[in-house]
Design goal:
heterodimer; A: alpha/beta; Rossmann fold; 4-stranded antiparallel sheet; 8 helices; 10 strands; B: alpha/beta; 10 helices
Chain lengths: 273, 275
């Protein structure tokens, strides 16, 4: 059975203004169904405004969809009883794009990573500290970073702290919402490598939301393409992305930037060495 | 075309220091490069390698109270370093256009696009309001913005990031500056808009002979656009080479590391058949 199943989710946003009481609602997700198996990564591609992040929120339990169901290990996350919901919240974690706004600037790295442990595990002070150190080392930081504040870290380091926080409770699924998009290329690659390692070591599943085709391709097992709120393509193998003849996918493929100047696609720039 | 090699912008021995409470700290040092007419020079490096500081010092946008800029920056033979505020203001926007990374933060939210566009044009030319508006509309048509008249009446927050970035390119290009500095022009955009924006930049280059200093950490952008590439690390230049040279035969260890950090799609067919 799949770890996560999204069944026919439809969602729209209402915009209320002061004078007009209610404007016609804007449909952001239409009849989305998808599933993620244990230990796999689903890459979700789409342009800005396609509804990628809304779908991420729906899956995380942050935005109740107007229609449809989200099943985590067979339990509907919106109607389950309190204990089950607590358990699901523990097994379902998230890493956002902007690493700085995802942490409290007044908290040290130790308390940021330790917060979920405090909520869920009853550890003694020394045990918790040891666990936090282990987690920091797992993501490539060290004990020296324990007492540092967010502004003392670079974007890449802070994203590692966010990842450490997300894996601290040994979750089953992590939603990565544009988690590498604000980093430079070197850091992007390093974080993607770290994520692949963690996936293998802990048997994690990911929902990798991004507009970056290369990043999605390098980490995902299966791929979905979202366009104007509809899941237009859902591949079991990421290579099918390259043989698809859907016009939206073709346009996406043609926007991939060249890896080498020989393959550049800008017409006036070709053959000018 | 290639009979004369004319350098539009020359940066030599650029050193930038910032005063902190613990003494002076060097941001960039020994920066030397030349930008030829109608060419694209790519500036690559990780975050914190001094790419933006270099571009800001060309435009003298760094805080003069805390930073000292040594060395020489010449634009068509004219020294820019040390010019007073009034003189440099005549150059910014007119001779050197600037395209910033984050289009959302580069416009003031309290005025319409038209207001800001017309203001920019009128402060550098003798055009009246009506002529400036016509020029603005024409410039926006050149970057494929749909319905320019409506865009002029909208506020920055009513447009998407990709549209705003095109407005910024139109603004930078309409006075036909000799140099455009594009600081991570596509980083905030999604994949589809990235190539569009690069295409517009390239169109401006080929039509007006504008030289472009293209700053990016994305080697995909560099490989699409640049003629020559400068690689920066820790505030220094580690390698300068032709773009084909650099990708085929990188000399410096750091360049090799950057090239290895590229995410690649292992796909047999090179991506050339599209357009």
């Amino acid at each position: 059975m799949s770890l996560l199943q999204v069944k026919a989710v439809t969602h729209s946003y209402n915009s209320h203004t002061f004078l007009k009481w209610k404007e016609p609602s804007k449909k952001v997700l239409t009849d989305i169904s998808l599933s993620i198996d244990e230990g796999t990564c689903l890459g979700l591609l789409g342009t800005s405004g396609a509804g990628k992040s809304t779908l991420g929120k729906v899956i995380l339990g942050l935005e109740r969809p107007q229609q449809g169901q989200v099943l985590f290990q067979g339990h509907d996350i919106y109607t389950a009883d309190k204990l089950t919901r607590q358990k699901i919240r523990r097994d379902l974690q998230v890493v956002f794009q902007d690493s700085y706004s995802a942490v409290n600037p007044r908290m040290t790295a130790e308390s940021i990573v330790g917060e979920p442990l405090e909520n869920y595990e009853k550890l003694t002070v020394t045990e918790q500290k040891r666990t936090v150190i282990e987690l920091l080392e797992r993501v490539g930081l060290s004990e020296k970073d324990l007492k540092k504040y967010p502004h003392q870290f670079s974007g890449g380091q802070l994203q590692r702290i966010n990842i450490a926080r997300a894996i601290s409770l040994k979750p089953l699924l992590i939603v990565l919402d544009e988690s590498v998009s604000s980093l430079d290329m070197v850091n992007q690659t390093l974080i993607l490598e770290l994520l692949s390692e963690l996936k293998k070591d802990f048997g994690l599943s990911y929902l990798f939301i991004t507009h970056d085709i290369k990043a999605a391709y390098s980490i995902s097992d299966t791929l979905g393409v979202l366009e104007k709120g509809e899941l237009i393509e859902h591949y079991n193998s990421k290579d099918q992305f390259f043989s698809s003849e859907h016009p939206v996918v073709e346009q996406m493929r043609s926007s991939i930037l060249a890896e080498h100047p020989r393959y550049r696609s800008l017409p006036m720039r070709i053959n000018k060495s | 075309m290639r009979t004369e090699r004319s350098n539009v912008l020359t940066v030599s021995d650029l050193h930038v220091q910032v005063q902190t409470k613990d003494g002076a700290s060097t941001l960039v040092q020994d920066i030397n490069f030349e930008l030829e007419k109608g060419k694209v020079l790519g500036l690559v490096g990780e975050s914190g390698s001094g790419k933006t500081v270099t571009s800001m010092s060309i435009l003298q946008l760094l805080d003069r109270k805390t930073t000292t800029i040594k060395g020489s920056i010449t634009l068509q033979g004219r020294e820019l370093n040390g010019l007073d505020d009034k003189e440099i203001r005549g150059i910014r926007g007119k001779d050197i256009g600037f395209i910033m990374q984050n289009p959302m933060n580069s416009f003031t939210p309290v005025f319409t696009i038209g207001n800001q566009f017309v203001e920019t044009i009128r402060s550098h030319t003798a055009l009246n309001k009506k002529q400036a508006k016509e020029l603005a509309i024409e410039a926006m048509q050149n970057v494929n913005l749909p319905n320019p008249a409506k865009v002029l009446k909208s506020y920055p927050f009513q447009l998407s990031g990709g549209m705003l970035q095109r407005v910024m390119i139109a603004m930078a290009a309409c006075i036909q500056p000799s140099v455009i500095i594009a600081d991570e022009p596509t980083t905030a955009l999604d994949v589809h808009n990235q190539l569009q924006v690069l295409r517009h930049l390239d169109k401006i280059r080929s039509e007006y002979g504008t030289s472009i200093l293209l700053i990016s950490h994305d080697l995909g952008v560099i490989s699409e656009m640049a003629d020559d590439v400068v690689v920066m690390q820790h505030g220094r230049i580690v390698e300068t080479a032709n773009v084909y040279e650099l990708f085929d035969n990188p000399q410096h260890e750091y360049t090799k590391k950057l090239l290895n950090a590229r995410l690649s799609i292992k796909h047999e067919e090179p991506i050339t058949h599209m357009l």
